[in-house]
Amino acid sequence: MLRRPPYPASLETRKEIEKHINELLEMDVIRKIGHNEIVEITTPVLITWNDGKSRLYVDFRALNNYTKADRYPIPRIPHALDKLAKSKYITKMDCIKGFHQNGVKPNSMKLLQIICHMGIYEYTRMPF
């Protein structure tokens, strides 16, 4: 069992974390779990700042010990760019919180748990 305490955060950062956690709760992307539940992996919540805006990131590197290698990895970027080189049109689509559209299997939710000063939560949809 791996359990990490939340990273220390300033009052301002805590307010931003609360804003993001509440937004994810409203969107049913995460749910709060009890402190007495068995926690497989609990990861700290990180906030990064970009032009005054914040974004919620979670350190899921510990999950690498639980995942299987992908036998069909995505193509290398240079190969993909070579295929695009002679294209007449290129379309770019940006989905807001696109990963959150995909649900997580119930047996995988315990691996997608986060901890912050507000408590322990688990993702019910794919995290970014």
UniProtKB/TrEMBL annotation:
Sequence ranges assigned to domain Reverse transcriptase in this UniProt record: 51-128
Residue intervals passing through the bilayer: none
Alphabetized Gene3D superfamilies for the sequence? HIV Type 1 Reverse Transcriptase, subunit A, domain 1
| InterPro entries documented for this protein | DNA/RNA_pol_sf (IPR043502), RNA-dir_DNA_polymerase (IPR053134), RT_dom (IPR000477)
Task: Show the Pfam families listed in the entry.
Answer: RVT_1
Q: Which PANTHER family match?
A: REVERSE TRANSCRIPTASE DOMAIN-CONTAINING PROTEIN, TRANSPOSON TY3-I GAG-POL POLYPROTEIN
Q: List the protein's name.
A: Reverse transcriptase domain-containing protein
What is the organism of origin for this protein? Answer: Austropuccinia psidii MF-1
Upper classification of the source organism reads: Eukaryota, Fungi, Dikarya, Basidiomycota, Pucciniomycotina
